[in-house]
Amino acid sequence: MAETGPQPIIIKKVNKGHGGHHGGAWKIAYADFVTAMMAFFLLLWLLNSVTQEQLEGISNYFAPVTASSSTSGSGDILGGKTITEEGAASSSTSRDAVTVDLPPPKAGTGGEESTDTQEGSGEGEGGGDASAEALAKAEQDQFEKAKEELEETIAGIPQMRQLAESLLIDNTTEGLRIQLIDQDGLAMFPSGGADMYLHTKRLLEVVAKVIAKMPNNISISGHTDAVPFVTDNGYSNWELSADRANSARRSLRHFKIPESRFSHVIGKAATEPLLPDDPKNARNRRLSIVLLRGTGEDNEASKAKLKEIEDVLPGLGDIKRRQLEQGAGPSGVILDLEPRIEAQ
């Protein structure tokens, strides 16, 4: 038997692939997931950072203005049929058309209504007039609420009830007019003087707390009765009425009314009596404080903002106008008064 050499030892190494664990495919999926999450949270942030009015304006911007009245190809000439050699015959693949009436957009004013609005709000078609009317109505509502608040405040303070007859509030073409009027036995100023009584200052403080919340400029005029009043140095009802108007202006400044809001301070003497048939009546002696219509920084800013919004987002101006028409009343007045009023 022939000798055989040592058997060679054969070692087989099997390389197991780890591509499934260390490959790069998972990175692409993870990147897509992170991108989607970033877009989602960015959307949530944008929705939280804008106001409801802006969301409604954006919704209205994308609302359809016009839409085709036809439902589909079945409403055209062929009526859902195909052409064959024999003529128009029903197709085996065609289906009856279904028309669904969609509800109107929640926030937008698209469709025919939006078309009418745009046609009527263009330049030269009364669009600017509509904006001005909305602002005027909102201002008028503010005046009405200020009047109610003043009357309720005076009626709710026992020490001030006796002054209810001394406060006359009415709406005029010039604006909201608030008048502090003399009564028989209860004057606002000493005879021939321009220094207010204590109860006059308290009444003016109530007025100041209401008009401080409104943007309108203020006109103050002083009035006297027709009783002749002339001193040796020529001081007359003219100077007296002007001094009383300035005294009211200084008191309003003391009650935090900005100086920039005062438009006119006038003395009118006895030229505009409250009771023309009785020019010497005590009620002709009065202070007249008028909140002038269409004035004030907030009023001008509202007009400019409304115009800007209408230019950027068509239809959002209508939403703004509806909100302005609803108006916003001033909040309640809290006033601490002394327990009694100085007697006259």
Question: How does this model look, in words?
Answer:
- This protein is α+β, with helices and mostly antiparallel strands and 344 residues long.
- It has a domain of 200 residues: 2-Layer Sandwich (60s Ribosomal Protein L30, Chain: A).
- It is built from nine helices and seven strands, in the order αααββααββαβαββαα.
- The protein has a five-stranded mixed β-sheet with strand order 3-4-7-5-6. Strands 1-2 form a two-stranded antiparallel sheet.
Q: Which word captures the global form?
A: rod-shaped
By CATH, the architecture of one domain is named 2-Layer Sandwich
Low-confidence stretches: 106-125, 328-344
Number of helices: 9
Biggest beta sheet attributes: 5 strands, mixed
Instruction: Tell me what portion of residues adopts beta-strand conformation.
Output: 5-15%
CATH class of one domain: Alpha Beta
Distance between the termini: 153 Å
Kindly identify the CATH topology of one domain. 60s Ribosomal Protein L30, Chain: A
The CATH homologous superfamily of one domain is named OmpA-like domain
Q: What's the β-strand tally? A: 7
Secondary-structure element pattern, one letter each? HHHEEHHEEHEHEEHH
User: What structural class do the secondary elements suggest?
Assistant: alpha+beta
